[in-house]
């Protein structure tokens, strides 16, 4: 069984289960286990960190329970806190894997660029009060497109076997006081998005020229890059799967609506 999950990251210590139990995975598995009357263990498409939001997370799990698809949505939601919601449910083949079957993930990072962060956006958007040069950041972002060794942008505790990733898209747009970073890659390293945003913001502040990003890629050393940017404005907005899996149309519809709603809130 596969589910599409959305959650407000402000409420949780990230996705992955922890001893304190205050993670999205902990709450979801508890609700699923109660709903099915059997122990449930889930696998997700991307393990988000503390404070990171999910608009289109995908999970899969094995179960002997048989329910209508709408029951998986409404029944499990009735057992979840309001900050986590099942958006859709779909039966999948035994070889479907939420993480390894995915071909790409898309994240959006939102920054409010203003003197003081509006209270209503605390925990929902990143913030920087310095004037940021949009064109310089856009130029710098182009160095990150393609297949690269992203060692300079991975956490020291990253467990990925390889730092090689393929960045399909990295665009930056401005909407009033908001800067919207859209990043799509085959997969991301631990803290990779936040480290990339931090480096691009340094370029936007004028601390480095855009080609500094190229130098960081070549150095492959995290010590020379910018600090990890705050988690607040990071959203997992889409996960791509091969069309033959059958999730594409449903998941895309929900993900697109969720993303458009996010943009309308800006």
UniProtKB/TrEMBL annotation:
Substrate binds at residue 107. Gene3D superfamilies: Pseudouridine synthase I, catalytic domain, C-terminal subdomain, Pseudouridine synthase I, catalytic domain, N-terminal subdomain. It catalyses: uridine(38/39/40) in tRNA = pseudouridine(38/39/40) in tRNA. It is an enzyme of class 5 (isomerase). The keyword Translocase does not apply. It comes from the Bacteria. Keywords: Isomerase, tRNA processing. Homodimer. This is tRNA pseudouridine synthase A. The gene is truA.
């Amino acid at each position: 069984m596969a589910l599409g999950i959305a959650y407000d990251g402000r409420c949780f210590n990230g996705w992955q289960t922890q001893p304190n139990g205050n993670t999205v995975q902990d709450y979801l598995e508890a609700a699923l286990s109660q709903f099915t009357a059997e122990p449930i263990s889930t696998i997700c498409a991307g393990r988000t960190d503390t404070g990171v939001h999910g608009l289109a997370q995908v999970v899969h799990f094995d179960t002997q329970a048989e329910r209508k698809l709408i029951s998986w949505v409404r029944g499990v939601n009735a057992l979840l806190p309001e900050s986590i919601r099942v958006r859709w449910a779909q039966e999948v083949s035994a070889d479907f894997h939420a993480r390894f079957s995915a071909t790409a993930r898309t994240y959006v990072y939102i920054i409010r660029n203003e003197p003081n962060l509006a209270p209503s956006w605390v925990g929902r958007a990143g913030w920087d009060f310095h004037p940021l040069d949009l064109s310089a950041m856009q130029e710098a972002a182009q160095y990150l497109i393609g297949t690269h060794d992203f060692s300079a942008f991975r956490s020291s505790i990253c467990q990925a076997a390889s730092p090689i990733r393929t960045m399909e898209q990295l665009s930056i747009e401005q909407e009033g006081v908001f800067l919207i970073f859209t990043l799509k890659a085959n997969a991301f390293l631990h803290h990779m998005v936040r480290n990339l945003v931090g480096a691009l913001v340094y370029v936007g502040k004028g601390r480095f020229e855009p080609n500094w990003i190229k130098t960081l890629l070549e150095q492959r050393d995290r010590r020379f890059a910018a600090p990890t940017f705050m988690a607040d404005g990071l959203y997992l907005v889409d996960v791509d799967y091969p069309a033959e899996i059958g999730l594409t149309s449903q998941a895309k519809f929900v993900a697109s609506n969720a993303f458009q709603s996010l943009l309308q809130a800006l």
